Amino acid sequence: MSRVRIPPEIGRGLRDAAPVLLGVAPFGLVAGAAAVDAGLTPLQAVGLSVVVFAGASQLAAIDLFGSNAELLVIVFTGVVINLRMLMYSASIAPRFRVLRSWWKSLCAYVLTDQAYALSIARYADEELDPTERRNYYLAVGVSLWIVWQSCTILGIVAGARIPDAWGLEFAVPLVFLSLLVPAVSSLPTVVAAVVGGTVAVVGTVVSVPFDLGIIAGGVAGVAAGVAADAVVGGSGSTSEHGGEH
């Protein structure tokens, strides 16, 4: 009996994605459990995970659902968080130009930070034909999708059994902190985190209508980070020019 051979780039994609999957699994569990804790039914929680399929925006939406935010605010927050996907898609789209429309649609659906980062690194490593590029990307993206959805469902089942006394409502903020802290690695990111966090907290304390304080915090944080980066970059550029003269 002949063995079924897995195309090389699918195998390579699965191997490269394996370490990432270990990190994605706990977040999927938290997302599922937190969705149930926020008041979503298991079917709604699964539907949210399948339709959105974006960890950060999914967790943000769950947190807003739990605080009874307006639907428009929840949707807008998810859109803002996922705006980076526009840059990812613009960057990687030329690699998939020759693919058929339904392949492109599937690639767009499973686009994530990890799938983009691993695929761009792989494409830069050596020249691949369109089929090989597609195989690698989908191996990474689909494996991430399967693990995320599976862990979300496990989290939904487990979350429905967790007593309220365990304080599951703290899970989402803790996950966001674990994502935030490693990212705060320079002066602009520190400024963005401090300004954005302060505005969001103040907005919550003064009860800004429709929970818009969270969105205001995000906008203020981005603006402050960009301004700080411009100041730091400008100072560095001035110093360099000063050293030349």
TrEMBL record:
Record keyword Ribonucleoprotein present: no
Lipid bilayer topology: Multi-pass membrane protein
Pfam family, one: AzlC
Keywords: Cell membrane, Membrane, Transmembrane, Transmembrane helix, Transport
Spans traversing the lipid bilayer: 20-38, 136-158
InterPro entries documented for this protein: Brnchd-chn_aa_trnsp_permease (IPR011606)
UniProt GO BP: L-valine transmembrane transport
UniProt superkingdom: Archaea
Cell membrane as UniProt keyword: yes
Name used for this protein in its record: 4-azaleucine resistance probable transporter AzlC
Native source organism of the sequence: Halobellus clavatus
